[in-house]
């Protein structure tokens, strides 16, 4: 599992449209790595991979860019193993809003603008207690994409749910404790349910609405079973 500042997902970065963001990255990974900033100007993303245990400073110009996007490790598969995060650039106050398509009530419009300043961000990721190397070998053994995960994480939080009694087979195939079909020749996977906290972000008491940004992350790779 890879972490940024001791956590996964990496910390959410905040800026306002038009800001120049300077980011200092220090890598403790014993391999080359690089951080890719999705959907930002190309000049803000150009860099050679960071050398093992090296560092790199980049400056990102957010002019003309706004909204929620993500950043992730892009040299290896570490992004699928926890090295990813969200970046939110708040739109400039001068940028036209579409809220009058919803209401013309001035009080409601002010409430919407206030809710915009308190937007909530959710990063949703399918998670396996195995690294990507193991998953790639598993996909080659099955000849298909990896489809069985231990948890669905919301902002890095979630629980393990094991196979429930009464669900022993699927289409004639035995299911292991995790609820997955095991390829021939591979051992069954054990499963221990967990009772960790869920992520709870929304509190609508005394509010008529809220803003939410949702980012979905998953590992999808095409695998040639003959290679």
Automatic annotation (TrEMBL):
<dbReference type="InterPro" id="IPR045087">
    <property type="entry name" value="Cu-oxidase_fam"/>
</dbReference>
<dbReference type="GO" id="GO:0016491">
    <property type="term" value="F:oxidoreductase activity"/>
</dbReference>
<keyword id="KW-0186">Copper</keyword>
<dbReference type="Pfam" id="PF07732">
    <property type="entry name" value="Cu-oxidase_3"/>
</dbReference>
<comment type="similarity">
    <text>Belongs to the multicopper oxidase family.</text>
</comment>
<keyword id="KW-0560">Oxidoreductase</keyword>
<feature type="domain" description="Plastocyanin-like">
    <location>
        <begin position="2"/>
        <end position="93"/>
    </location>
</feature>
<dbReference type="GO" id="GO:0005507">
    <property type="term" value="F:copper ion binding"/>
</dbReference>
<keyword id="KW-0479">Metal-binding</keyword>
<protein>
    <submittedName>
        <fullName>Laccase abr2</fullName>
    </submittedName>
</protein>
<dbReference type="InterPro" id="IPR008972">
    <property type="entry name" value="Cupredoxin"/>
</dbReference>
<dbReference type="InterPro" id="IPR011707">
    <property type="entry name" value="Cu-oxidase-like_N"/>
</dbReference>
